[in-house]
TrEMBL record:
Domain (Pyrin): residue spans on this chain: 2-90
The protein's name: PYD and CARD domain containing
Pfam families per the UniProt record, alphabetical: CARD, PYRIN
Species in which this protein is naturally found: Lepisosteus oculatus (Spotted gar)
Keywords attached to this entry: Cytoplasm, Immunity, Inflammasome, Inflammatory response, Innate immunity
Length: 211
């Protein structure tokens, strides 16, 4: 399995923002002082992938990470900024909060009770995972790539990852996943599990949707 690139980490981070968050990010990005600048017309309706491409083409890849972290902090998405900084630290160095070129506006929004970013939950996806739990246990045979992605997204820690991976069969691996981390992560965990399976095993999801 190939290691994620810096650009992949930027895309993953921006995909955690909802529509309102992306709009705030685009606005703050265009308001950054100094050159090079990104113009509003270049990213008016840009999604996470478009934004990542524009950031990398404008600031080069390591600069794009730094600018992304800086802008996330300026729109009070401190959890996402810290997560991106931590995941890319070995490649671009530490990105300290004091390094914000926009003066780092004070975040007045109340902190979320959990350390997880606030993500709108699509209950259709959550219900789908609950409904087809046994199907996933029996039919998901490529468990390791799924665990890799859940580890990256913070649903698993290393201890959980190793414990699940040690199970003798793919059914037992999936059973441990559902009984432990997915249960603990609640609706957010089920939503992320659905999205990863949709990406990695689209034919299985399509088949289950057709039932």
């Amino acid at each position: 399995r190939m290691a994620k690139s810096l650009k992949d980490h930027i895309i993953d981070t921006l995909e955690e923002l909802d529509d309102k968050g992306l709009k705030k990010f685009r606005t703050k990005l265009c308001d950054r002082p100094g050159e090079p600048k990104i113009r509003k017309g270049q990213i008016q309706d840009a999604d996470a992938l478009d934004l990542a491409n524009r950031l990398v083409s404008t600031f080069r890849v390591d600069g794009a990470v730094r600018v992304t972290v800086e802008v996330l902090r300026d729109i009070c998405e401190n959890h996402l900024a810290t997560t991106l900084s931590d995941k890319t630290k070995s490649l671009v160095g530490d990105i300290s909060p004091s390094g914000s070129a926009t003066g780092g506006g004070t975040c007045q929004e109340p902190a979320a009770p959990s350390s997880a970013p606030a993500i709108p939950i699509n209950m259709d996806e959550v219900n789908f995972v609950e409904k087809h739990r046994n199907d996933f246990i029996q039919r998901v045979t490529q468990v390791e790539p799924l665990l890799d992605e859940l580890l990256v997204r913070g649903i698993l820690n290393t201890e959980m990852y190793n414990s699940i991976l040690a199970a003798p069969t793919h059914q037992e691996k999936m059973r441990r996943l559902f009984q432990g981390p997915i249960l603990s992560a609640g609706a957010r965990g089920k939503r992320i599990l659905y999205q990863i399976l949709l990406e990695q095993q689209p034919f299985l999801i399509a088949d289950l949707m057709g039932q």
